[in-house]
Recover the amino acids of this structure.
């Protein structure tokens, strides 16, 4: 009953927001409507277990409200960066638990990169019992009938959907005549995948400490929690976070020699 009630609220909000968007010539709104329809309203794929109509409706409204906030914010580039950072951190929390150890196939392409091993996949249930943020997920009504691995898969799916949308809108903002951010489509390198790796490396390091495991960085010049610096660069709207990140640790290691 609770989910059905929430679904009805979500649908009403969706219709209200959609109606308000119809008369708006803001390209951001129009793009958002189209992307959201294909991801949440009429998905052209089979969602994972737990991605019920009610769940998708709730995520849809959350995303619409987030887009509305970003679009009406005078500093929309900063708001967009923070929204992307929040979603990447949420994704990393579960993504490192989805990556299997070798020789199983890794669809993320992250295993083997600095700090990412796939060793935590078999420790997922254990981590849900000791990490406070994971424990809080398990207590939420929607996740109570799902296994720990199913929770990770569902949240990962939802975060990826929202990230794809935010990325599309990010480039739309930058390419618009009103775009005021120094970042543009001509920026040296896009940083999202590097950010996801950095966030996952930071998260795996944190989980490994909880489990009493050694770090997984081998001879990498950048160690453990240093990867969290990338999040700061993203949130501060640094034009090229990758170059700034590499330069910072290049200087650090040069000073050691």
């Amino acid at each position: 009953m609770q989910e059905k009630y929430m679904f009805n609220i979500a649908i009403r909000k969706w219709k209200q927001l959609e109606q308000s968007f119809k008369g708006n010539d803001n390209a951001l709104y129009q793009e958002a409507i189209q992307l959201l329809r294909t991801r949440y309203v009429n998905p052209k794929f089979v969602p994972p277990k737990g991605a019920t109509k009610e769940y998708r409706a709730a995520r849809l409204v959350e995303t619409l409200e987030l887009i509305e906030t970003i679009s009406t914010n005078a500093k929309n580039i900063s708001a967009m960066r923070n929204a992307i950072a929040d979603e990447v951190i949420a994704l990393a929390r579960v993504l490192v638990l989805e990556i299997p150890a070798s020789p199983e196939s890794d669809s993320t392409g992250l295993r083997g990169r600095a700090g990412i091993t796939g060793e935590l996949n078999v420790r997922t249930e254990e981590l849900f019992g000791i990490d406070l943020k994971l424990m809080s997920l398990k207590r939420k009504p929607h996740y109570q009938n799902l296994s720990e691995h199913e929770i990770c898969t569902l949240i990962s799916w939802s975060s990826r959907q929202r990230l794809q949308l935010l990325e599309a809108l990010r480039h739309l903002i930058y390419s618009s005549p009103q775009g005021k951010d120094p970042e543009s489509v001509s920026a040296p390198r896009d940083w999202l995948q590097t950010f996801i790796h950095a966030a996952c490396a930071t998260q795996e390091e944190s989980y490994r400490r909880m489990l009493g495991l050694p770090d997984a960085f081998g001879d990498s010049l950048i160690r453990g929690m240093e990867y969290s610096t990338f999040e700061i660069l993203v949130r501060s709207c640094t034009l090229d976070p990758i170059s700034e990140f590499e330069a910072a640790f290049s200087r650090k290691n040069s000073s050691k020699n």
Observations:
- The mean pLDDT is 79.
